[in-house]
Queue: 4 jobs
Job 1
Amino acid sequence: MDRNYYYRLLGLREGASQQEIRAAYETRIARLDSDDYRDDPEYVERKKRQATDAYRVLTGSAPPVSKQQREARFEKFKDYIEKRESGEAAIPPYRFRPKSSRNRGVMIAVIVVIAVVILSVVAGLIVGVVNSQGQNGGIWSDFVNENWSDGVEPDWQLEEQALIDELQETLPQLDYWSGLDASARAENSDDVNWTYGVGEYGGDTEDGTDDIFNNTFYILYTLGINDMAVFYDHVTGEQDFFYDYDDYSCAAVLISWLGAPQFEDVAGSVNLYTDQLILDMADYLDYLGYVIDEQSI
């Protein structure tokens, strides 16, 4: 297709600079996310995908990552899970359907998250009391200085990292192939969506989540890992990896950490747990969720 078509999608003249393309893309997405289009989600989704395609064609790369958008999205989804577990929200039509054990795991994870929040509030109150007492805080001051000093990771974060390391020793031993029928991979290759989740934020549903993000969330929470940001920081050694990279990149890191085959090696296979084809990254994460459930991890 004529490149000028993609310039027009972003309201630009042919030959616009990389900076102009980025600015036009961000302006377009912000406009589509405004209240003006809230009543027409199908239109918004179509126009977002057009804008994303235009950005990719014109720049040769994925659209820019917004850390603020991703952080808000994660917090919004955690809030949704808490409301769902308390009966305040209906279960959305996610592709990844937790079985009973997975539901219990998510409930436990949510309880842990709430407990961490409560402890953080209590800690804040203690620090406030100490600060109000000045420099002579006595025992309380010594306690706070010892346990909440700058640069020291809290115990819960260290425990999370220890769990991640422990799981990494056992997860690669799982049988990731027995639930796959790869006999028709070649004939299904033309139907595989190789880029679903690349550079996309905000998701394709009204609550701002999509299948890749949601499936990644459930796999980690099923394993007892309650903080996605801590997980990616620890596994990659790169601070804010979860916020700075797109869904596809995060999913690829998770798959490597699990010791599972790469998406490219299984795309087009049949998930024997559901008899559905694995045609995008979300399908594959769905399959991995079943593997983990069935093998009692």
Note: Residues 3-63 form a domain with the Helix Hairpins fold (CATH 1.10.287.110).
Job 2
Amino acid sequence: MNLLKDKVAIVTGSTKGIGLEIAKIFLEESASVVINSRNQKDVERIVNELASTYKGKVVGCAADVGEYAQCEKLVRACLEAFGKLDILINNAGVSLIKPSIEILPEEWDKVIKINLYGPFYLSQLAAKQMIKQGGGCIVNIGSIYGLGGLPKRAAYCSSKHALIGLTKVLATELAHYGIRVNCVSPGYIMTEMEVKDVSLGDYTSSDIEQRTPMGRYGRAREVADVVLFLCSDKASYITGANITVDGGWSAFIGWDKLLTQVKKL
């Protein structure tokens, strides 16, 4: 459909999971994409895989978005490769499941730096370039953990709550420059991060499926589809929004058994 024809995008954390699906759907819609991860080998592997189909449309840059200098490096790599920056997807993120009273300062710092500092640093750098170009689009990947609290997720929930707030501030500040800023908050999506979290034993996959009104995990592609819409001209009057992609999780305030009863009606 060429929804993103001639557009250039940076997608952070795009060597797996939701980020990789976003990068793929952008390429399918004729955008040029910068692949990012902290791991150089992962970046090279994904770029090589995608370049076989999208030659000249994809480059990679290994960078830790929690560090300002690394964010500068990432934006610079984009401009050197494609000459402009139209879309920024702040997807890179890390999880931490640990009782609040046991979280170490360095663990807290790591989550906040990658999940919050990175999106701010990159949004600031990208916005400066987008202003020169006359507009652009920024999408932050939040979480339903930014809408409520959950035991053992102090750092993660804090970072995602703040990210939604940051989205709203940037949207109001940058609107008159033609820059739209939105947030997409996934629920439980079956990714490598989710598999790792389940392996810790606090909950099972069936726990999530039974609690979700739609009765299943989401797919990374379903999140990517929403991000694509927000970055396209079809969302030209949407800014400052937070869109949940969670199968009804955040709308439902009941308990598992109640959903079972409803299904019998």
Note: The chain has nine helices and seven strands.
Job 3
Amino acid sequence: MKKSVVIVEDDSGLKEQIIQILESAADIKCLGAFTSAEEALPQILEKKPDVVLMDIKLPGMSGIQCVAEIKKVFPTMQVIMVTVYEDSERIFRALKAGANGYLVKSSPPLQLLAAIRDVSTGGSPMSSHIASKVVRHFHVIGHSPREAENLSPRENEVLDLLSCGFIYKEIGDKLNIGTETVKTYVKHICQKMHVRSRLEAVAKHRAEY
């Protein structure tokens, strides 16, 4: 089964590059590419792609606002921000809106394809220096008491494995539970840690230790 993807990118040259990258992969199918959130949003809600590649700065509605609108209707839809912006404010606005991954546009094609595959199976792809910014942010703001202390032993196990980079299926295999059960644990973890995505939960967890 091919992973379906929708692109939202207002730079026509970059949009065509991303389309070509997706078309080079046998297991990924591009359902459409749009230059504005207003144009993309109804199509995304209708086509229900597995993954959305979202730019942040768009004409009119921003990519972050578009993510929030998508998540209101389809909270489990996977959205990867693909942007030139690396400042902490935009990163965290995207994460709080529900983004599942965050890549810079300079990322190599293979990393983009790997991110689509990764996020589709429960991963949280993020450019390495972006991940460092996220962890540093949570170190600075601190947490008292540790929000992870509210988790059950099994939820802590799941969170530890997520932090090590394991995807849902691998976590299920290690803990002898089903993938859907892992997703339920992750949902409870996010609720208890007051975050919108597993990516933010992992970042908080890493910063606490």
Note: The domain at 142-208 is CATH 1.10.10.10 (Arc Repressor Mutant, subunit A).
Job 4
Amino acid sequence: MIQDIFPKKLDNQYQDKKPLENSIILVFRERQILIGQDARQNLSLPRLGELGRQIGEGDWRSSLQYYFSIEEMDYFAFQGEVAPFGAYEYAPVRSFRQMINKEICFAIMTGWHLHQWYSASRFCGRCGERTVQDDRERMMRCPSCGNAIYPGIAPAVIVAVTDGNRILMSKYADREYKKYALLAGFTEIGETAEETVRREVMEEVGLRVKNIRYYKSQPWGIDGNLLLGFFCELEGSDEIHRDAGELAEAGWFERDRMPAHDDGISLTREMMGVFERGEEKAF
């Protein structure tokens, strides 16, 4: 999956670091990122030195925020405006999910998650005062009332409903992603992940399930989610009652006739691959 960058490792602990000339700088604009891409889809992100030559003199470095490191490479975000320059153009954050540049794509996802949180946490939700970065941990602190604001992570389930040699697959309604997926939904307050599985399957396709088994998790920074994968089995009738507001399509597919396969990127696709290989009973 996209976060599997071994032997390299993400270090996401907050540190009061200063950027070096070769530090990577994430520059977001609305839902886009400044990035270079060649004809072979090789990606590159601007370094501090390159950005400095483009912006010129001034105190713009004070607008750099340390985000994380991958091995020895530090990633910072620039909280300011930068026009496209050289090989760098703005492109949608959601367009970067690929194997050829897995490390960069994962960094973009993780950086976007932090960028969204920082943007939404500039003011205290309790008293309205401007917040400040805590000097010890990844937390925005209100100097007036002491409110502590930590990065938000939304748990959501990915559900593979199986019936012998068949798996339930669907397409979302009114979403940017138009390919086949598994059922999914957010865990609500006071609800276990297993209860989320039962509720989402019933709400989206009107089916009952049994033998719910946890498979694996995946951080999905584009939406600020932590995805929790589950396999389960059909209980009772297999007649689908699709929620048209959530799903454009939903249907059963034989193991050897699946319309989507493992892409090495997403938890959804990896779970499809597990079923396609007949390995779902191991979990």
Note: The longest helix spans residues 102-120.
